[in-house]
Amino acid sequence: MPSEHDVAVNGVRLHLTEQGEGPLVLLCHGWPELAYSWRHQLPALAAAGFRAVAPDMRGYGKSDAPGEIDRYAIVQTVGDIVGLVAALGEKQAVIVGHDWGANIAWNAAMMRPDLFRAVIAMSVPYRPRGPVPPLQALRTAGVRRFYWQYFQEPGIAEAEFESDVARTMRTLLGARGFGRGQSSDAPMIVPEAGFLAMLEEPKTLPPWLTEHDLEVMAENFRQSGFRGGLNYYRNIDRNWDLTAPWQDARITLPALFIGGTQDIVLHPRFAGPALQALPQVVPNLRKTVMLEGAGHWVQQERPDEVNAELVTFLRGLA
After folding, report:
1. CA nearest 227: which of 96, 31, 42?
2. CA 192, CA 172: separation in Å to the nearest integer?
3. Position 224 pLDDT exceeds 90
4. How far apart are alpha carbons 207 and 245 in whole angstroms?
5. Would you report the helix, strand and coil content of the chain in percent, each value rounded to 5?
6. Quick check: 291 and 305 in contact, CB under 8 A?
7. Which domain range does residue 261 map to?
8. CA angle 187, 188, 190 (to 5 degrees)
9. Cis link prior to 187 (omega < 30° from 0)?
């Protein structure tokens, strides 16, 4: 059975869920999720002989949520995971990430290849540092309401999402749209009515998401609010500045990518080109797995297939 405990790393307290013994595997969730998002992976990895540890990332769940926006920059979030390896008494780990956690995992692999011996990313491919800051690039392209931009002004998205947390989580996790594809040629452009207006609140939950799962997520966000998670987006251009030393870097660690064919994040107008370029910038990419019909929440939607790919890859590292 998984156990829960807190550790102090990098100036914050992280709440961990842990199961199993063996080589360390760290599981980093994305937005808007929790360590609970890895509930299907923890027992599977433990049964396969690994020590699986999933933190509530800073700003989420039962972990600390610093108030300053710049404390969610990539050097801080990667620093949390670097510190976590030592706090757990280990010298190396495999890092796994989904959504924003994938971005952290890619950057951890790039910055500390001595500490992380492999990287597994889900739903978000690695994107090398571009020639200009990402938000500037959007403005130059004439884009004004992309969801990254909508999240920039503190308080606006928080007010929308926190007005009815249960509805917010039901819509974000259960709706077609963000989670399961979109036919628009301009995905994730936020209408004046707000982010949730892009999506259709589901009348019934998808089979992979129970009312209990939804309530666990909602209760945590009622307690923590959404500001911590949104602050990750408010560092997008700052992260571009901070990663200047890694301009044109390639990630050389053994890597696995898992995505869903119905994931809007992998839309051709969004991260699709980065997915196509992944073998060039991650030359030791051992496999790309695209699960037919799966949406964005891939490790929750298709746990058996994801778990099988994780265990096969991890065992292959030996």
Report:
1. 31
2. 18
3. yes
4. 45
5. 40, 15, 40
6. yes
7. 3-316
8. 130
9. no
